[in-house]
Design goal:
Blueprint (H helix, E strand, L loop, with lengths): L3 H11 L10 H14 L5 H21 L4 H9 L39 E4 L49 H12 L6 E4 L13 H19 L4 E3 L24 H10 L6 H10 L2 E6 L2 E5 L22 H14 L3 E6 L8 H14 L16 E5 L21
Parallel strand pairs: 1-2, 2-3, 5-6, 6-7
Antiparallel strand pairs: 4-5
Length: 404
């Protein structure tokens, strides 16, 4: 967010649609580069590259926004930047069907069937990773061809990766999946996204699709017939965090990404799931009898998705769709796992509030998934780990007002 802060301030000055200067993308981009360089947010060449990559989408979203500059800044960066009120409070409609009684937990009986799940997230493969290169560089991402070589007394990038500003080499992904493939007894894989590297200033659509197809191919190679259920991460797109809702058409839409995902993942997902994946990056599927999976596109709740400046009210109708899925699951006495990349506590306030309302309505007792004799409905959210790692507990009832 280091570049976003001055950019928001920049747009607060130039970004009012009543200003003719706002329509001049090159002028806005030029000022953004100057701010980035003077604040030394990143090395100068990266300032130019990241502004060039983001400018068209960000300016399009800003022109389409109904928010004032200070409201947009508050939406993206919080109350320290501005106050955001307009359209901020909205509610998802919940059905009138009463919530079933919550039954006391019942442990599984001895010898009950078990479910063994593998959780993968944030692989961040860097195809430019070079062992021995500098692991401590000035750029946001190191251990690469452009990182240089370590000076005397400094260590270089490791053969398998590095605990520095570095992503993973492909050999590590090969080794990881090879070991996992030999474990046996796995029933399914939950894979919650972020496939490409963190070089967000220098990524093309071809780069992102290469990462998608390469890692998907390795999962199929090493895990065989095991079903993998993916979720869309914020790094899958370029520019990063750019996930326009379905009402954005043409070259700026996400069709290029969702279509590629539906093609790459058709081996794992049924046509009904591929339909909504292709439309907006989310889906539901039956993992096995009595267990349903919901994969949410959490980019539609992200503060860093600048397309939400246009309209942040339940983008793509995803939460209302979730209510329909959970109501059907409740009627069919299915348990539900919900996966997604961004933890809901890091989402826009109204989206997060509505999500908790939905989960609270459909959450029953925390019954084990291993006991087929238990039939209570139990949606269990599973999201990627935030940075830094934290543990979040969802309470069984919402107390207080939405503004708390």
């Amino acid at each position: 967010n280091g570049l976003l802060w001055p950019s928001a301030s920049l747009l607060s000055h130039y970004g009012n649609p009543s200003h003719s200067t706002f329509t001049n993308a090159e002028r806005v981009a030029g000022v953004a580069v100057v701010i980035c360089e003077r604040l030394r947010l990143v090395p100068d060449p990266i300032c130019s590259q990241v502004v060039e990559l983001f400018k068209h989408d960000v300016i399009t979203a800003w022109i389409g926004s109904v928010l004032r500059p200070d409201e947009a800044c508050g939406l993206l960066l919080g109350s320290t930047c501005g106050r955001w009120d307009i359209y901020s409070d909205w509610n998802i409609s919940l059905p009138a069907t009463p919530k079933p009684p919550v039954l006391p937990p019942k442990p599984p009986h001895p010898g009950a069937p078990q479910l063994r799940l593998l959780f993968l997230t944030d692989i961040h493969w860097d195809r430019e990773y070079i062992p021995g290169s500098s692991a401590q560089c000035k750029e946001p991402l190191c251990c690469r061809a452009g990182s240089g070589w370590p000076g005397r007394g400094r260590r270089g990038a490791g053969q398998w990766g590095d605990y520095s500003k570095c992503d993973l080499p492909l050999r590590t992904v090969h080794s990881l999946l090879k070991q996992l493939g030999g474990q046996g007894a796995l029933d399914a894989v939950y894979w919650t996204g972020d496939i490409p590297a963190h070089n967000i200033w220098h990524q093309s659509r071809d780069d992102q699709l290469t990462a998608l197809t390469t890692i998907t191919g390795l999962l199929r190679q090493y895990l065989g017939k095991l079903h993998v259920y993916p979720a869309v991460g914020n790094h899958e797109s370029t520019p990063v965090n750019s996930f326009p809702p379905p009402f954005i058409h043409g070259n700026q839409s996400s069709t290029w990404l969702y279509s590629a995902m539906s093609e790459a993942w058709a081996h794992w997902l049924p046509p009904s799931a591929l339909h909504t994946l292709r439309m907006a990056g989310f889906y539901t599927v039956s993992v096995r009898q009595g267990l349903r999976l919901v994969s949410l596109n959490m980019n539609f709740c992200s503060r860093e998705n600048f397309w939400l400046l246009i309209n942040s009210t339940d983008p793509a109708g995803q939460l209302q769709w979730l209510v329909t899925v959970l109501q059907q699951a409740e009627s069919q006495r299915e348990k539900v796992h919900i996966i997604g990349h961004i933890p809901p506590g890091l989402c826009l306030r109204s989206w997060s509030w509505n999500y908790y309302r939905i989960v609270n309505r459909y959450t029953g007792p925390r019954l084990p998934l291993t006991d087929p004799s238990t039939t209570a409905h139990c949606p269990t959210p599973i999201h990627s780990t935030p940075h830094p790692p934290t543990h979040t507990m969802m309470v069984s009832a919402l107390i207080g007002k939405q503004n708390d």
